[in-house]
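Hi L., both proteins are below.
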Amino acid sequence: MFDNIRVVLSHTTHPGNIGAAARAMKTMGLSRLYLINPRYFPDAQATAMAAGADDILQHAVVCSSIDEALQGVTFTVAMTARLRDISIAVKTPREAMPEVLQQAATQPVALLFGTEMSGLTNEEMGKAQLGVNIPANPEFSSLNIAAAVQVMAYELGVAAQSFAPCVQEIEPATHERIEGLYAHLEKTLFEIGFFTTQNPARLMQRLRRLFSRTRLEDEEINILRGMLTVTTEYNARLKKRYAEEHPDVQ
């Protein structure tokens, strides 16, 4: 199961945090590290802070975008230190880790961590199916990214001790298939004029939240995209007919 779990660090600014995160991963049996546009990597400070977890740094995958880092993933868990206006469901690490293990038993899973200063953006949060918040002092809830990785890795180990996988009833679609649906949906809504009285970004966040609760399968995505294609084609025919019947209307 742990081989199916990747730790994804987004836009890390301090190389020492990358090394410390690698060390935290290795102590708990995790080995797959993905880095999205780190400011400094490779770096001597990262190696020093890894304290023996050099192999994880050597095999770390450096990505240019979050979509690249999540390619092939079917379940993404995003770390968040604060409540947000529009958000996915948020659990504690202890509540979330059994679900992570269940997904990782058969499919790739990602634990997504944001930059040190501001955490994950709303756009990055929108890529996840579940949020996790580490309970902390409300007056001082800032947690070092490597410490957050250590907490999550520890809770994975605790959950694994009593974990018994159950039969998966569905085979969820991968990240890139779901992102393709969202892009198609947004394009179609623009074309049919749905966004004229809506806030597109906010509406798409809500639609992401809706679909993230459904755990879409490939065939379901095919059905939805087929519906969107037919909608676009029908809208184009209506526009063409209207233009033919009203040639003087611009």
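That was the first. Here is the second:
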Amino acid sequence: MAFDRVHDARIRAAAFEWLTDQVLRHGDVLPRSLLVQGFYFGDSRVPLVGPQGIFKPRILELPLSITTAPEGPYNDAFGPDKLLRYRYRGTDPDHRDNRGLREAMANRLPLAYFHGIAPGRYMAAWPVFIVGDHPDPFSPSFSVAVDDKGHLGVVAEDRNERGAVGEEGDTARRQYITSTVRVRLHQRAFRERVLEAYRRQCAFCRLRHEELLDAAHIIPDASPEGEPVVQNGLALCNLHHAAFDKFFIGVRPDYVIEIRPDILREGDGPTLRHAIQGLNGTSILVPERLSLRPDQALLSKRYERYREAAREY
């Protein structure tokens, strides 16, 4: 039976529309339970992920998504071509899952990619395209490129011998977009690790609404010491993250909060009084595990910057 491109395109479009809606509701890190449940296309339920990394729902002939689990088993990484390298299922190039991705590449079909950020939580990116096949006997993999959603309906005419898009403009665009996704992966991974360590609440005010929480760097990530590790992070609500970044608030190495003196003297209503001034002299919430608590040397450096800012007012 011939491949039904129209049927396939309708289901993929419905899947991507559903993902767009879920990301608007939940952000681009989604719970696995939601992806397993999926959506309905007519009378058929269409999950987005399954037990294996390469997933094809029953309603489709070819894979709809690829997934990297946070705990492995495969070492999916980005190659020197700035594209994602996605490992084969096993080592048999003719395994049906590997054949499925190869056929998706030949038909230039868009897929969804779910990267495990933390157990049960995945960052979603789409559309992604299989653009290369590397049947290396020691590390067989596919090259995966992320594209922008405006090119979902665009089919390139020229391809190289591996099936990758041949036009330089398409290749450069996909490399750039894939690189930006790589940066987002690191950012989301940092956020998830920090929020988990702080039990998903603000270290200053204990707010528990995750939608309003950020992972703040103690030393900014642009600095050589600003590594994306939990010990250089604080879980903060949006308000306190902004106040911390602007040096309204300082944290001493002994985890005690200080409010800049000129801010303490202001009389600007209940939000300032209760949400910021009231924190002065209180202790921050710290992770239960000692190894995940803020690095006191980093806090000391940050506190000195806060004091320098305070002297300017």
